[in-house]
């Protein structure tokens, strides 16, 4: 079967499933493989549960014409996604970066969908499987697709660009994330810049944060670009009005009061405003879209519980985002502040150094109470309260209840620090 023939079949059955627990009637099941599973072995179950066809890559499982045999199921999914991307009329906006990708993607979608029919990456399905699935969700009437791209090593963004073939791109920032895979900060810059490399190489359009010296320098001589800045009037000017606790901005004489906590969300808002401007979304629609967006899934959520005002930012953490969150928390006005932070993952041989730096910084800020959680923070040299595990922290807090305070909770996803809410 050719890719053209598979795509024709996809148009008849435009729902993709890779999980037999989530089969929908008449979908196409792609039998992906993982370290601990072989999707081919579940293909018959997918058909039994309502899938129209199963795409497999092991001939022994082909027992009827409803099994479509290809050399490699994952490669076939990716190739089908690229074929569909070129078949559709949608323009592709891709974004990557160390911090803020998902929030920025949601804001961009909120703004652009005011004028256009859009689709966007769901959740953080931003890898070699998620990007194809996003592209395959493009419908006949989709005008713009916003595709988030994640990476933890070099050449990954380059590969994803080959699949998505973006028309536009934006990099949120270059931070200390996935240092283990990228081999250091320079590796992060090179890896994320693969999006720029693709766009420049194909004469496509670039959006940039002109307050970021790295971005500004890399794109200095490139002409197909539009940038925002809070200070450089060569670029689209957006003014930061404050963040106590919510970010407020001013653009074209219009004030926008967001529901996003922390100055670090300023540039995320600016990117959405900039793209709204480029795509001719009226400023009043940009304002209503951004003011109406409320973060979820443990991403800088502002909560109140039992007398505590809590910033819950427990979806992810790296040294750059952690420092930014602490700086923002320090600037906030509150009678009493409690900090609970957890280990940052994927830092490789820089883990000890980076956790010590954050512990030292937290100590300098002198919050009323500070708790460090996780094996890396436990190994730091500090006078702050530290616990080797969440269970150890929980035991301590059960015996020593916290005083009512404003609280920041932040850590990598694996720390699951949202569990602190259960203890308050």
Automatic annotation (TrEMBL):
Residues 96-275 form the Mur ligase central domain. Residues 16-60 form the Mur ligase N-terminal catalytic domain. It is found in: Cytoplasm. Transmembrane segments: none annotated. Pathway: Cell wall biogenesis; peptidoglycan biosynthesis. One of its GO terms (biological process) is cell wall organization. GO terms for cellular component: cytoplasm. Residues 299-376 form the Mur ligase C-terminal domain. Gene3D superfamilies: Mur ligase, C-terminal domain (3.90.190.20), Mur-like, catalytic domain (3.40.1190.10), MurE/MurF, N-terminal domain (3.40.1390.10). ATP binds at residues 97-103. Keywords: ATP-binding, Cell cycle, Cell division, Cell shape, Cell wall biogenesis/degradation, Cytoplasm, Ligase, Nucleotide-binding, Peptidoglycan synthesis. It catalyses: D-alanyl-D-alanine + UDP-N-acetyl-alpha-D-muramoyl-L-alanyl-gamma-D-glutamyl-meso-2,6-diaminopimelate + ATP = UDP-N-acetyl-alpha-D-muramoyl-L-alanyl-gamma-D-glutamyl-meso-2,6-diaminopimeloyl-D-alanyl-D-alanine + ADP + phosphate + H(+). Pfam families: Mur_ligase, Mur_ligase_C, Mur_ligase_M. Its main location: cytoplasm. One of its GO terms (molecular function) is ATP binding. The keyword Repressor does not apply. Its EC number is 6.3.2.10. Involved in cell wall formation. Catalyzes the final step in the synthesis of UDP-N-acetylmuramoyl-pentapeptide, the precursor of murein. Belongs to the MurCDEF family. MurF subfamily. HAMAP family: MurF. This is UDP-N-acetylmuramoyl-tripeptide--D-alanyl-D-alanine ligase. The lineage of its organism: Bacteria, Pseudomonadati, Bacteroidota, Flavobacteriia, Flavobacteriales. The gene is murF.
